[in-house]
Amino acid sequence: MTGVDLDSIDLKHCEALDAADPLARFRERFALPDGVIYLDGNSLGALPKTALDRTAEVVGREWGESLIRGWTAHRWIDLPRIVGDKIGRLTGAEPGEVLVADSTSVNLFKLMAAALRLRPERRVILSERSNFPTDLYIAEGLIELLGGRHELRLADGTDIEGAIDDDTALVSLTHVNYRTGALHDMAAITARAHRAGALVLWDLAHSVGAVPVDLNGAGADFAVGCGYKYLNGGPGAPAFLFAARRHHAELRPALSGWMGHAAPFAFETGYRPAQGLERMLTGTPSVIGLAALEVGVDLMLEADGAALRAKSMTLGRLFAKLVERRCGRYGFRLASPADEASRGSQICFAHEHGYPIVQALIARGVIGDFRAPDILRFGFAPLYVGHADIWHAVDHLVTVMESREWDRPEFQTRASVT
Amino acid sequence: MTGVDLDSIDLKHCEALDAADPLARFRERFALPDGVIYLDGNSLGALPKTALDRTAEVVGREWGESLIRGWTAHRWIDLPRIVGDKIGRLTGAEPGEVLVADSTSVNLFKLMAAALRLRPERRVILSERSNFPTDLYIAEGLIELLGGRHELRLADGTDIEGAIDDDTALVSLTHVNYRTGALHDMAAITARAHRAGALVLWDLAHSVGAVPVDLNGAGADFAVGCGYKYLNGGPGAPAFLFAARRHHAELRPALSGWMGHAAPFAFETGYRPAQGLERMLTGTPSVIGLAALEVGVDLMLEADGAALRAKSMTLGRLFAKLVERRCGRYGFRLASPADEASRGSQICFAHEHGYPIVQALIARGVIGDFRAPDILRFGFAPLYVGHADIWHAVDHLVTVMESREWDRPEFQTRASVT
């Protein structure tokens, strides 16, 4: 955005930025509906056009024609590893360090349970008070299952390093906060935890595909992540898990299902863990979901990571500036870090009428989302959101506020999912 | 099969049986490849033709056009319950007693953990030595995670009732044995367990969709089952879990993810379990997989359960008789119960050359499978397997044995999945 004055930028400038955008060509690879400005790719990513062909192929040709033979003929059995290795390339992991399986929540359980076993003398899982709830709930459930010997200790996001002590078994954090977009310094926190003898688990749900992630560069022990946000894997896409190779031989799987057995098809009576990370697999892989996810991951692999981050930051900066400039008098308070190096690919504002404002925007085709109690959340998926989209989105916001459109009765009723 | 003499039955008789089969009309609802006789629907069910349209719709229209709004607009969020209730109708459960989620293995873990908490003073999970391995492995992993206070006790399938004692917390059995097809008496074993104060968990992987299941009629406490076998939900389809309503309020979820929270979208810091069985949900539902599974379940709901069982028994009886009559001299030993009321919808033979014989049959388009060490397994999905198919399958077996086709080198190499 060199040479562009954010205080005077207009639609024409935005269109010029789109024309010069090296990622602009990806937009046509997605099937986005007409009239929609989609600023919720951090909740559910858009549909890659080829995902439709690929799911038709896996259902019609692979399942329909190969039937049971598909497990070998189409390498269904290897998909957790194949797609996992591709995600590994997006996250600074080596081949064999990432597997696609289950949901993020289930993977959190697997890795938290494994981590506590690696630090049997320690009692504390340390997390962030405003972490995504499932990360906290899963830790709670595990601790209760284990009889309450452990403790989930919660700190503010800025106090994590100071809260790590000799009793910390595991530091469990989400790389980019789901509500505010605040970005943790993965390398610094991991180093601090390691100095204290603790392990670290990173949830990459809101970073992979939008923010550079270098798990091995940061020395991370474990990670989980989501397939349906910036990876564009489809609703309820399977999730992934990472464990650094140095831990593989010591990992004891709590969810010791047949797919994690050393010889799943020998049908032995007793469990023997597979050699590598495959021991963390549990049940039969979700083949159709894996096939759709692979399309999204392949598309992401075509894009340059540095360009993704640069564009994401530009979009965020532009959005924040335009809201400040054009909606300054309506009481929006920036809820994301003001320093763009400290935030992910989203901008959030707090507003007392956050819920109906988001609904009014959605009715206009500007899809962001609301997070209780008062957060308007806008995500910028750099593969398919453009600079002019940002201009138009703020234009709609101006209208919604000026005309008090948000005050209409139909925007007040809370739906269960937003 | 009234009036048909199995000792003299021929192809013409088989074709007459197909012509009179009230379930024959379902065959055309499946996309089965030409030249294939599919006797492996108990491993991966065939493709319902409409599953292709439905997955295209959920991907192209629902995901592509509704994007995040699909969670409410297309009721994705309710699919675990909607499809669960439909499976409930196939298994003698009430609405709200079945949920579709995760894999069978993960659901086993959830229910076993919950069951042990309901019987805190008891130490034993009792299972069958020849149970499907993942059922045993998951129990092992749970017991190890809990610190070894519990014990997995294994009995022979015929000795289960005698092995239940005052220390039995949970009896965990598969309704129809995956290798032999032996069918347990669900009501009798459940009653015996209850008299001893134990709970019972039934794995319906090889029964739902082929054998009558009446969970509440039998007084069952818990059940799990598979979506990709007789329910024809596609490779790696999501699985299901059942808990009798009398237990819901006391269930403490070990995998306490956000989807099982009383208010998932309030994003509270602490976990509060949902009111009913929904507390056993964990992560985000696998929407595409659920949509494909629903097609298979809907198709199964169109069929009459008594007709399914009657046809399945006829097919099994016919297959066993023809192998005995036409391949008697080749050393096949029936590995399934001889009494057809005591077996599910499959017939297994033990044979020292079981592996290459199965491979030779597959090369001829007769798809059954091999289960170590020496079992040839043939499943009869009554919705799409006909009587003439059985005749032709045995015809191929006769040729494979007579010509020693199985002895060819290409049939000796073991693949990892069969």
Automatic annotation (TrEMBL), chains A, B:
The modification N6-(pyridoxal phosphate)lysine is found at residue 229. Gene3D superfamilies: Aspartate Aminotransferase, domain 1 (3.90.1150.10), Type I PLP-dependent aspartate aminotransferase-like (Major domain) (3.40.640.10). The keyword Hydrolase applies. SUPFAM superfamilies: PLP-dependent transferases. One of its GO terms (biological process) is NAD+ biosynthetic process. Keywords: Hydrolase, Pyridine nucleotide biosynthesis, Pyridoxal phosphate. One of its GO terms (molecular function) is pyridoxal phosphate binding. It holds the Pfam family KYNU_C. Transmembrane segments: none annotated. Pyridoxal 5'-phosphate binds at residues 104-105, 132-135, 174, 203, 206, 228, 258, 284. Its cofactor is pyridoxal 5'-phosphate. It catalyses: L-kynurenine + H2O = anthranilate + L-alanine + H(+); 3-hydroxy-L-kynurenine + H2O = 3-hydroxyanthranilate + L-alanine + H(+). GO terms for cellular component: cytoplasm. Pathway: Amino-acid degradation; L-kynurenine degradation; L-alanine and anthranilate from L-kynurenine: step 1/1; Cofactor biosynthesis; NAD(+) biosynthesis; quinolinate from L-kynurenine: step 2/3. NCBIfam families: kynureninase. Belongs to the kynureninase family. Catalyzes the cleavage of L-kynurenine (L-Kyn) and L-3-hydroxykynurenine (L-3OHKyn) into anthranilic acid (AA) and 3-hydroxyanthranilic acid (3-OHAA), respectively. Homodimer. This is Kynureninase. The lineage of its organism: Bacteria, Pseudomonadati, Pseudomonadota, Alphaproteobacteria, Rhodospirillales.
